[in-house]
Give the backbone structure.
Amino acid sequence: MDPIDFSLYLVTDRALLPVGKTHLETLEQAIIGGVTVVQIREKTADTAEFLRVAQESKALCDRYNLPLIINDRIDISLAVGARGVHLGQTDMPIDIARQLMPTGTIIGISCNTLDEVRRAKEAKADYVGLGAVWSTQTKKLTSPPIGVRGLGAMLDVLSGSNIKAVAIGGIKSTNLAHLMHGSMSQLEECLDGVAVVSDIVAAPDPMKAAQRLKSIFRASRIVAAKRIPTSRDDILTKALTIMTAVRSLNPLVHQMTNVVVANQSANITLALGASPIMATAPEEMSDLSKISHALLVNIGTLVSGSLQGMLKAGHFVNTARNPIILDPVGVGASEFRKNSVNELLNSWQATVIKGNAGELAALAGSTEAESKGVDSLGNFKDPALFTRQLSRKERCVVVLTGETDYISDGERVFMLKNGHPLLGSITGSGCVLGSCIASYCAAANLLASDGDQHEGRLNRGGDFLSAAVGAVLALTVASELAAKRGDVHGIGSFLPALIDELSTLRPEAIRRLAKIEEVGF
Ligand code: 3NM
Ligand code: MG
């Protein structure tokens, strides 16, 4: 028997069919659209009806040479000669099912926890269904969704085995790219496929729905493995190109930031040559995602209502393939902030995460660096290694700020030593750095967008490592220039001087003053 291609796994649900559509015509359209394996799932049918649906579906799948799997019922699977069964945690145990089924039967099992994945591996399942990734209307969940970031650890458990893994629960064409990107494991294991019910079954055009999902899945698998190598001089040159592009392209940077720094963030953005828009209402997030070029999410003065807007905004910005910069301000200070940041990162894919040692330690669940409110106390033993590891884990560029700043894309780590102490003395210098990074990422993404049609990308493949380096250099070098001015006497006069210096900053000044080094491992 051919091995099963799990890439697009359709799970049926006749209750979700749009009015006027039949199960079989929807199934056939989905197969034509690119579904690679089908599971018949009947939760309310009696045995005779389940058997009839399974027989008809089997005949259709046979015509397209597609494997058919039956949910829960070993007897139905045997009766129609299906390729396998899919079991839940409370169904027949795998070893007994194995004894009852012919040799070569595919047995899959749903797993919701790491322990369940370990047990599935011991029991020699052929594949696991990992979920629910997100909440779903299709099934009443008995435990909370695991989120995208929980999947990587599950994939690591399976690493080296032949067990295939598909994710399930709330997967749609609008979040599939994030799922593929954010679920990759530390060992670079990817999902073998995605299982989908409503996005196909309830779609007005199931063939198109399947095509969309399939092409995103394919593109994501290719993009996931690709990284751009960069040297120190190379990255400086690229950063300065992006700096110039911010001025010529004048990107619109949507910023959901805190009330303390909103005004200075908007002015700093203008000084760089970008345009700010500071909007928070969930109702306008869809519209704004169509006109803006990057999104900054800063949780500095988060309230419950603003979280909804941030969740929505990120979803639309991922779909528009524009960059998202997350500034998890004071994430260690409260459970509310911690849970909120978790929810944000499980709902959308960040392009850059920026924070001080205390914030990034809290985000990574590390106790190495502590926080006092929004201020960081202490640092990591090996900040460069920490930055690289967090970057790998979250699959985005990470900027660790401090006296020395560290920036990594999961491969390279750059260490930057510019900046005047006055920059740390004003409020919100970290937050305005978020605005700088967002402006630079917006330009980097625009520079990369020409002719790139990959649907599966979460962004247009811009050089966000160079963008982050450029943004940090711009702000820190400008702070050095501002502090030297005769009209600066303290933090009050420093801020306007910083804005002025940023607005007249030349690439040559950065090239001359930049203290940047690559960290070797
Ligand atoms: N099993 P949709 S979630 C059948 O978590 C099923 O094991 C799940 O439907 C699990 O793609 C789910 O419409 C329903 O969200 C998935
Ligand atoms: Mg079951």
